[in-house]
Amino acid sequence: MITQSSTRGLARVHACRWLGTLVLAACAVAGCASAPSEYGAAPSSFEAVTVPANEPQWQLLEPAPTAVGPAFERDTLYELLVAELALRQGDHGTALKYYAAQARHTRDPGVVARAVRLATLERDISLALQMAELWVEVAPRDPNARQAAAVALIRANALGPALAHLAELRAQAGAANFGYLALQAAALEPDARTDLLAALAEVHGRFPDDPELAFAQAVLLDQERRPEAALALLEPMAVDDLPREAVLLKGRLLERLGRRDDAIDWFGSWIDQGDDQVRLRYVRARLLIDAGDLASAQSDFEAMLLRVGDNPEILLSIALLAAEQNKLTEARDYLQRLIATGSRHDVAHLYLGELAQAEGDVDAAVSAFRNVSPGSEFRSAQVRASALLLQHAGRVGLSRYMEGQRKRYPDEAVTLWLLEGGLLLEVNAPESALAVLDDALLAHPDDTELRYTRALARKRVDDIAGLEADLRHVLAREPRNAMALNALGYVLADRTDRFQEAKELIEQALAMRPDEPAYIDSLGWVEYRLGNHARALELLEQAYAAMPDHEVAAHLGEVLWVTGDSEAAVQVWTEGLELEPDSRILAETMQRLLGTERALGVRSSVEQR
């Protein structure tokens, strides 16, 4: 069989499915709330000199020691001054070099702390670890040193030693972020994770009321796919006792265990507490959408909007939810607000067009689709506009629209030619499609996709010589174009007696893409035409199993019929008609082999199902 060019399928206009897009749109909303990892953000080891926007941090538990003191030697003071000047000039590498050297030389806690900060800022994991361990050595009672060492060890994937520092930090300062350690354990081997879980349980025995330790163990249990055990650790704790990330984990565990309503209630009990409303409302809104409670989900998104202002992703989510509830005026208002933000305007125009189309306002729909500029939504919008114009203004209206769009967007001219020609082929107007593609190739004579698409149009009008000329032109420029090799081979097998040449072409295509069902179908068809029925049946059954398709069904059914298995042939044809009720190749094959009356009977039985 011939595979269609990439633009052909674009000519099919499908009904809008708002919720399918809403899921994708809403996934970006977490970005307006400092998008978390699954359980929350990971901390850094200190209050850094300058922290990049994407680098979460732990604050120092107490003010850092002063880096420079009066007792330093003259050479030390000089090097520290050079380091500070380098730091002010943005030369962090030079600053780190001098601070690390003086940290080792002076063993002063303030200098060492500064070296840790700079090494972490420069993402020098090895040096950060060395400096952090030195900090613990010179200031063993400083909780900041323990914290820095723990984080450095975690980043070096030494989770066991890191836990020892966190346990000591917990004893010294009364708190430690065990959850961060657990989050880094996802890549551990199962045995190593089990050992870490046992070590955490031992520390938890020393501090049984510490919610961070319960959370850390729950994270590890969840990583081990033991959601019931993970939830059991979190269930007894009140909302106020849990770390913020544990709130998210508990809700997600409830969801995974099939307790979606409990998860919704759980997030609701937390939403009005603290400053994390946007993230939690987003998670709850997603659950509400899954539960079909679109009105409540929309309310959550609207509350998020009040918090963060006209965030584009939230505006889009509300618009789609409103559209799904058939609140079209409301949806339109939110889309207009989205356009006013200057972001996602192409998506907004696309959906404004679909709203207008749903209300039967063809002019407004086409106008909105026309306003979608080149990008990810461009083809979809032009297909919809073209289909509407073809239906309501005929081929002349379509032609005028496409001509205007090609002038407006000359870089998209080939795409627009292909869309116009492809749509005309879809509506069974191959002569008109040929006229369009002829004009296109006058302007773009070497475009292989235009040539390939015109070859498909020429096949529809039985211009086999013209088809071969176009495909030979493609292959002259792209000898390894598997799609063109297969198409030419298939047509030669189907419409001529040049079977051996056809087989060689198809085998070349299969050599490049041996698992392509369409090419396997073509080889099966040429084997049938050569009289090799057993081999043909084997190949066609393989193709049909991999890709149930009406054209493959026509071929397989014919070989089954010719080899005497008429019942199986009719069954395969019936399946093909269920896939494509208007299939021309199935209609022709059944009429030729079954006769008109029986073929109509098979079609009628399918229609009545």
Describe this structure in words.
The chain has 609 residues and is mainly alpha-helical. The chain has a domain at 44-176: Tetratricopeptide repeat domain (Serine Threonine Protein Phosphatase 5, Tetratricopeptide repeat, Alpha Horseshoe), CATH 1.25.40.10. It has helices at residues 18-27, 74-88, 92-106, 109-121, 125-138, 143-155, 159-173, 178-183, 190-206, 211-223, 227-234, 244-256, 260-271, 277-290, 294-308, 312-324, 328-340, 345-358, 362-370, 378-408, 413-426, 430-443, 448-460, 464-477, 482-495, 499-512, 517-529, 533-546, 550-562, 566-579, 584-594, 596-607. Helix 10 runs parallel beside helix 12 and helix 23 runs antiparallel to helix 24.
Kindly summarize this structure in a few lines:
By secondary structure, this protein is an all-alpha fold.
Task: Explain the layout of strands and helices.
Layout: H1 18-27, H2 74-88, H3 92-106, H4 109-121, H5 125-138, H6 143-155, H7 159-173, H8 178-183, H9 190-206, H10 211-223, H11 227-234, H12 244-256, H13 260-271, H14 277-290, H15 294-308, H16 312-324, H17 328-340, H18 345-358, H19 362-370, H20 378-408, H21 413-426, H22 430-443, H23 448-460, H24 464-477, H25 482-495, H26 499-512, H27 517-529, H28 533-546, H29 550-562, H30 566-579, H31 584-594, H32 596-607
